[in-house]
Amino acid sequence: MIPNLNLVPFVSVDHMMKLVLRIGVERFLSELAAYVEEDFRRWESFDKTPRVASHSADGVIELMPTSDGRIYGFKYVNGHPKNTREGRQTVTAFGVLSDVANGYPVLMSEMTILTALRTAATSAVAAKHLAPRDASCMAIIGNGAQAEFQALAFKALLGVDRLRLYDIDPAATQKCVRNLQDRGFEIAACRSTEEAVEGADIITTVTADKQYATILTDNMVGAGIHINAVGGDCPGKTELHRDILLRSDIFVEYTPQTRIEGEIQQLAADHPVTELWQVMTGAAPGRADARRITLFDSVGFATEDFSALRYVRDVLAGTGLYQDLDMLADPDEPRDLFGMILRAGREGSVSPG
Predict the structure, then answer these.
(1) Which sequence spans correspond to the domains of the chain?
(2) Separation CA 66–CA 87 (nearest Å)
(3) What is the CATH number of domain 8-113+304-329?
């Protein structure tokens, strides 16, 4: 715990990068994944609601709240695919944890980097329960900002050490290859999606365009594959051909949200899916047999951000990698908020106007 109830610790982008490097990227992902799984296992203790989304022609801005009854958390996040063309991030985010007992915030943090980490950690947690046993080769279709995090999370949790990469922009693939060299991978830069999925045990799709798309067609997916579908995360945005869904055992985070935003928006509203928490708690089976196709239809859910913020708060003490924000009013008497303003005038050099 970080002392001083009247100041709120804030983790900036700079501090988050230094925290990740101090802990080590793969260790950070592994420890974060444990928090994500722990919270999925206590799924029924959380308030759950689909994220509140404000859509525009340019992108989406969303709020993602949840609470376990003791701690409340939310994330502000956007998704603007066109930003890349303007030299901006596609996704930016920040988050807050608060004490339910008094409503006071106890942590604020950047979540642009943290969201990338928690998305990858969640993907790897799902794959741990759903992917073929001893999977070692993963295709990553879409080599943008999320790709390296996915690769390192799957290496840390599943031992994946062979990557087959493809992006419609070869520069993105080369960036990914460059960033992952000397990280213990055998990497193949591929010229097409078809080439990338050859020999893969796991296929991760993580593209950014906000549109219905067919990144994977039915003929590309053989028996026994695990698909980690990350890119489709809002209404009107998908990556997989519908026929793949009809052949797959589908696993989701929170069904009401995924029906709106995920790959399964292409299917009937009563098409059977299994929530991930059910697999983790033993309430439902995961991979039925070696020849089944499993699909994690990942859209991101608020409990994962809650887990990430909770992890950061737990590892932050003693690091000095935060700054205290003066966000909480501290009047001499709780009802005398105006008196606190007058006190500031007496104690400082501000003169009444």
Answers:
(1) 8-113+304-329, 123-300
(2) 32
(3) 3.30.1780.10
Domains 8-113+304-329 and 123-300 share a fold: no
Strand duo 274-275 + 248-252: pairing = parallel
Alpha helices in the chain (DSSP H): 13-23, 25-41, 112-130, 147-158, 170-180, 193-197, 242-247, 255-261, 276-280, 302-316, 337-347
Whether residue 233 lies in the annotated active site: yes
pLDDT in tens, 69-128: 999 999 999 988 889 889 998 889 999 999 999 999 999 999 999 999 999 999 999 999
For the chain, give the longest Cα–Cα distance.
Answer: 76
What is the pLDDT at residue 352?
55
Residue 243 above 90 pLDDT? yes
- Give the strands of the sheet with 274-275, arranged side by side: 186-189, 162-166, 137-141, 202-205, 226-229, 293-297, 248-252, 274-275
122 in Cβ contact with 35 (< 8 Å)? no
Domain 123-300 matching CATH 3.30.497.10: the answer reads no
CA distances to 40, 45, 225, 313, 339 from 303, in Å: 8, 11, 27, 15, 40
pTM > 0.90: yes or no: yes
What is the predicted pLDDT for the residue at 113?
Answer: 97
Q: Are 153 and 183 in contact (CB under 8 A)?
A: no
DSSP state, residue 262: S
Residue 53 phi, psi (nearest 5): -115, 140
Q: In the structure encoding, which two tokens stand for residue 122, read together?
A: 């969640």
pLDDT of residue 1: 43
- SS3 of 16-57: the string is HHHHHHHHCHHHHHHHHHHHHHHHHHCHHHCCCCCCEEEECC
- Inter-residue contact 76 to 98 (CB < 8 Å): no
Q: Residue count of the chain, please give it.
A: 353
Residue 209 has pLDDT above 70, yes or no: no
Which of 39, 233, 297, 305 is catalytic? The answer is 233
